[in-house]
Design a protein that fits this description.
InterPro entries: Metallo-B-lactamas, RibonucZ/Hydroxyglut_hydro. It holds the Pfam family Lactamase_B. This is Metallo-beta-lactamase domain-containing protein. The chain is of the alpha+beta class. The chain has three domains: 77 residues; 220 residues, outer membrane lipoprotein receptor (LolB), chain A (Clam); 215 residues, Metallo-beta-lactamase, Chain A (4-Layer Sandwich). The chain contains twelve helices and 23 strands. A hairpin with a 5-residue loop joins strand 7 and strand 8. The two termini are 74 Å apart.
């Protein structure tokens, strides 16, 4: 307690104690009135006076001791360590720059080895991470010019196409020029530890706490905004050693809305005076899509211009002008191929099946999303006033999902495979503020894993089969037994130059898997339509041409 309060309290207590000390009751009765005892009375009065003086002296002594004690107490309290004031954002940034060794860093070249998920993000075999199929990148080298900013990465790799033909050698290149203001490209610079610190130095930084971590943040310049006009945010999580352990940002994606992209950094080592993470990974959609193991670094390389300049070589030519003439109307693109069954021709074909209460559409079209979805909706409206009650997503690859957005926006439920529903729910429920759009509220109907969903009334029977394969374990195949008709996506049957279906040895493993499924389940159809239109009419016999020889041991579809 404060010294004054302590002294005052102790003095009051002592005074009360001495006022009622047992000595007073003893002395008072001895104050006699008789003349015979005057001498004794005077003597006792003297004693009483001395006792009173002693009492007062005792009060002073004890008060002094209390003062010393209380003063010591206050001194001890005032000498206790006070909580340190939180560091400012500039102080935190300076500490991180010092720990990272980047105070004078303007460019850096790193080298080692890397990997990328096979066939790119959202073209993976499974919708949900982890995505284990990877293409290794040897002799990986990357140079970053922080002042520009620009980046050039290269390496040697072997790749495999979507149909799992044999791998072939290829060059890996990632070139981000200073003129490229596209955030989806530039973020690959800003998410590096050195890029983040450069961006923080240039754009200003703030500090906060998030899940117990110190987090530095900065936002993109005013002239670099999303379609909605929002500026982009970049965060960096700082560990106890003042090193960057994770960075993150959000970029607009037509399908996934505000798509989070993050980078995780581990195993820092000092290389050429700069702290370099020996291992790192880029994450999207909840899983790692790219990883690097660094072995060496060169800070501020003297040959920066040569390192940041891509080798000569012709880039891909631009697209030619669109074909002349007016585009056909949606009503001209829909054709009845069986009673109550309509084929809709777009760049990704669809099939609309009529029921008593409306239409179920297999596949919603490709790019551009709104145009293709609009064509499908208008085409169906041109033959009936019934609504579209559901859309079947054949599988969640990036080229088969963009037109789902307008369908979900219109409140149309999606029919999807069980093993893709978690990913699709996550992707379609993400906020879309960077696009300037409202958050979607998707509704799903689920085809069980390795099962069949049957939709049937007096008009039609539609069977939706889950046929997992090495291309995607989420593939759905539509079959209308009464019309002996089916439609597939990406089960592309191969033929020779004369449109003769090749035997099983000439078919890819995806079609071989479909042939095994069709044969095992006794599916028979005279017409096999394709989301990617076949070059000639096909039926179940063409599919069964891909059925492997009985002595052939089929590889696992996974």
């Amino acid at each position: 307690m404060p010294a004054f309060s302590c002294i005052f309290f102790c003095t009051i207590v002592l005074s009360v104690m001495l006022e009622f000390t047992p000595l007073n009751p003893i002395l008072k009765p001895l104050r006699l009135k008789s003349s015979a005892c005057i001498s004794l009375n005077r003597h006792m009065t003297k004693i009483s006076t001395e006792v009173s003086l002693m009492r007062n002296a005792l009060i002073i002594l004890l008060s002094t001791l209390a003062l010393v004690a209380c003063a010591g107490e206050e001194e001890m309290a005032s000498s206790a360590p006070m909580p340190a004031a939180p560091l400012s954002s500039d102080e935190v940034l300076a500490n991180v720059q010092a720990a990272m060794g980047t105070e004078n860093l303007s460019s850096i070249t790193v080298s080692g080895r890397a990997w990328s998920i096979r066939n790119s993000f959202r073209q993976t075999r499974s919708a949900n991470p982890p995505w284990i199929s990877r293409d290794e990148i040897m002799h990986y080298v990357r140079t970053i010019d922080l002042a520009a900013p620009a980046s050039l990465a290269s390496g040697d790799t072997y790749v495999q196409n979507l149909f799992y033909d044999p791998q072939y050698p290829a060059d890996y290149t990632q070139n981000i020029t200073a003129q490229d203001m596209n955030w989806s490209n530039q973020l690959n610079i800003w998410l590096t530890p050195w890029g983040f610190l450069q961006g923080a130095e240039t754009n200003g930084v703030s500090v906060s706490m998030m899940d117990g971590d110190t987090v530095l943040s900065w936002i993109s310049p005013e002239n670099q905004t999303s379609p909605s006009g929002m500026r982009y945010t970049v965060n960096a999580h700082i560990n106890d050693d003042n090193l960057i352990s994770m960075t993150e940002t959000w970029v607009e994606d037509d399908f996934m809305g505000n798509m989070r992209v993050s980078a995780v950094y581990r195993d820092y080592e000092e290389m050429d005076g700069v702290m370099v993470p020996a291992t790192s990974e880029i994450w999207q959609g909840g899983g790692a899509i790219f990883g690097v193991a660094l072995l060496a670094a060169d800070a501020n390389p003297t040959n920066l211009t040569a390192l940041i300049t891509p080798p000569p070589g012709g880039g891909r030519g631009g697209f030619g002008p669109p074909p002349g003439g007016a585009a056909p109307s949606p009503a001209d693109l829909i054709e009845e191929v069986a009673p109550g069954v309509y084929h809709i021709t777009t760049n990704y074909n669809s099939l609309a099946v009529e029921f008593e209460d409306g239409f179920i559409v297999f596949e919603s079209g490709g790019f551009p999303p709104r145009a293709n979805a609009g064509i499908i909706m208008e085409a169906v409206a041109s033959v009936s006033e019934k609504p579209i009650t559901a859309v079947i997503n054949s599988h969640p690859h990036s080229d088969h999902t963009p037109s789902l957005i307008p369908m979900v926006s219109a409140g149309i439920p999606l029919i999807v495979s069980e093993n893709s529903v978690d990913f699709l729910r996550m992707a379609l429920s993400t906020p879309r503020t960077l696009l300037g759009e409202d958050t979607l509220n998707p509704e799903f109907q689920v085809v069980p894993d390795n099962g069949v969903m049957v939709i049937e009334d007096s008009m039609n029977r539609l069977e939706i089969h889950h046929v997992p394969n090495i291309h995607t374990d989420s593939m759905l195949f539509a079959y209308l037994p009464e019309h002996r008709l089916a439609i597939q996506a990406d089960f592309t049957i191969r033929a020779d130059d004369n449109d003769n279906t090749l035997p099983w040895q000439g078919q890819n493993r995806i079609v071989q898997g479909l042939a095994i499924y069709v044969d095992a389940n006794g599916l028979e159809f005279d017409t096999l339509l394709g989301v990617h239109a076949p070059s000639y009419p096909q039926d179940s016999d063409d599919v069964l041409m891909a059925l492997p020889d009985p002595d052939f041991v089929a590889p696992s579809p996974f």
